């Protein structure tokens, strides 16, 4: 169960920075429902990249992943070679719900020392390497694959092939034909699913299967979010949180803090940052006019960052909307013991850690509101696969709704290409000589 707590948006609490949500919903009902209809209407068209809506319905893809997991019971370490959308979803969910005993590792950078450290720690005979790249061309992921493939072959000879699984586009890119030629296990990223929307396909489900995440429940939660995204504006939760973002960004609240009160959810903000920033930070709208949309998502974890960022959130510029994620129940709780001689702490004696966590979440939300800092909360009944699936698919919908409201394409990322081209030029890739010359003339070599 997931619900919204919008009470700290109320202008009676937060003043002019706030939002009369009921009134806004009445005013924007038509616009929100038009956005909903446009999104659902376009979803059959692969070029629109709305395939993520339907992926949670695809139970065959999950069964395939689970069969592979069962057939590979020997795996003790599972290494994901992937970056951005090809890593962040599985990282967020595994940190929250992974049970082991398989250890999951993510190589999402090309700094040599951590890669060497991992290679030295792993036993190749017990390691499965999952190279994940939709495009099959991401330099970081491919460099890591070249290194891990060599490492496996050096240790296992021809047996390296049993230790690699490839997750990529069914047709495009270099990885698919390579996997076929070498006879490697291969999984699909559906063509109509972009990286940051791919956690429900094998990009996410394969690593998550190995750490025992209940995938059926996770996808059922995603389907629940789909159901709410079909409703009229009064019950359409993603349209509602998109409305909050839209209205408050128009008031100049252009920083979006995403702050779960949970260490288990510590990587969820990283996943959200990519989803939100890459989707919504756009120079032009669908008509090609310059618009420069976007708000900046910022990571924070409660309670930890109460002691690092909340000072700024309360007293810094009024440019923020804060999204909290609160849990209603602990999965397991721990009593805080009484200790003689420390009676100054007696307000803690006999209370539980979860009670303290909940009190801090509510106290901080209220303290923010007192400083006229609007905030709202996703309230999760508990942290389980169903609820986390619901929340993540909700956030994908929220992003899609915002793209629609702002008239932009939320599913491309043209702004990241130039840096890649420059990298190719600096690395001496064939065909990039003129660009390398241009860079040299500009003082970059
Ligand atoms: O899965 P890949 O094709 O390797 O892409 C990995 C990531 O890199 C790109 O630069 C994009 O900006 C991201 O949206 C994507 O998730």
From TrEMBL:
Nuclease recorded as keyword: no
Keywords: Cytoplasm, Gluconeogenesis, Glycolysis, Isomerase
Enzymatic reactions: alpha-D-glucose 6-phosphate = beta-D-fructose 6-phosphate
Molecular function in Gene Ontology: carbohydrate derivative binding; glucose-6-phosphate isomerase activity; monosaccharide binding
Residues the record marks as active site: 278, 307, 420
Locations listed in the record: Cytoplasm
GO CC term, one of those recorded: cytosol
Biological or metabolic pathway of the protein: Carbohydrate degradation; glycolysis; D-glyceraldehyde 3-phosphate and glycerone phosphate from D-glucose: step 2/4; Carbohydrate biosynthesis; gluconeogenesis
Family label: Belongs to the GPI family.
HAMAP family in alphabetical order: G6P_isomerase
Function summary: Catalyzes the reversible isomerization of glucose-6-phosphate to fructose-6-phosphate.
Protein name: Glucose-6-phosphate isomerase
């Amino acid at each position: 169960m997931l619900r919204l707590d919008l009470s700290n948006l109320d202008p009676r609490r937060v003043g002019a920075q706030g939002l009369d949500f009921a009134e806004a919903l009445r005013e924007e009902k038509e616009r929100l429902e038009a956005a909903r209809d446009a999104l659902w209407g376009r979803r059959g068209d692969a070029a629109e990249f709305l395939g993520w809506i339907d992926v949670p319905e695809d139970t065959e893809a999950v069964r395939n992943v689970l069969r592979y997991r069962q057939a590979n019971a020997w795996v003790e370490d599972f290494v994901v070679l992937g970056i951005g959308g090809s890593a962040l979803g599985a990282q967020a969910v595994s940190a929250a719900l992974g049970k082991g005993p398989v250890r999951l590792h993510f190589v999402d950078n090309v700094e040599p020392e951590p890669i060497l450290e991992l290679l030295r720690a792993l036993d190749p005979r017990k390691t499965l390497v999952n190279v994940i790249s939709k495009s099959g061309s991401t330099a970081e992921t491919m460099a890591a694959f070249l290194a891990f493939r060599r490492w496996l072959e050096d240790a296992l000879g021809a047996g390296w092939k049993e230790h690699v699984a490839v997750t990529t586009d069914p047709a495009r890119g270099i990885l698919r034909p390579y996997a076929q030629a070498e006879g490697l296990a291969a999984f699909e990223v559906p063509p109509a699913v972009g990286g940051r929307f791919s956690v429900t396909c094998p990009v996410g489900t394969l690593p998550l299967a190995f750490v025992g995440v209940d995938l059926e429940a996770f996808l059922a939660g995603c389907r629940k979010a789909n159901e709410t995204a079909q409703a009229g504006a009064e019950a359409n939760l993603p349209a509602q949180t998109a409305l909050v973002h839209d209205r408050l960004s128009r008031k100049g609240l252009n920083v979006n803090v995403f702050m779960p009160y949970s260490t288990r959810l510590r990587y969820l903000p990283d996943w959200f940052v990519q989803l939100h920033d890459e989707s919504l930070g756009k120079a032009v709208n669908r008509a090609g006019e310059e618009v420069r949309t976007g708000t900046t998502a910022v990571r924070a974890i409660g309670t930890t960052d109460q002691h690092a960022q909340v000072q700024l959130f309360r007293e810094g510029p009024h440019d923020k909307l804060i999204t909290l994620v609160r849990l209603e129940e602990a999965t397991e709780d721990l009593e805080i013991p009484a200790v003689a001689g420390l009676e100054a702490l007696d307000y803690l004696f006999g209370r539980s850690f979860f009670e303290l966590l909940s009190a801090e979440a509510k106290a901080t939300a209220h303290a923010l509101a007192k400083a006229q800092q609007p905030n709202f909360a996703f309230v999760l009944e508990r942290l389980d696969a169903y609820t986390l699936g619901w929340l993540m698919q909700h956030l994908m919908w929220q992003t899609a709704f915002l793209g629609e409201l702002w008239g932009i394409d939320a599913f491309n990322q043209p702004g990241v290409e130039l840096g890649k081209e420059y990298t190719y030029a600096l690395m001496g890739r064939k065909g990039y000589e003129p660009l390398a010359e241009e860079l040299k003339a500009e003082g970059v070599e």
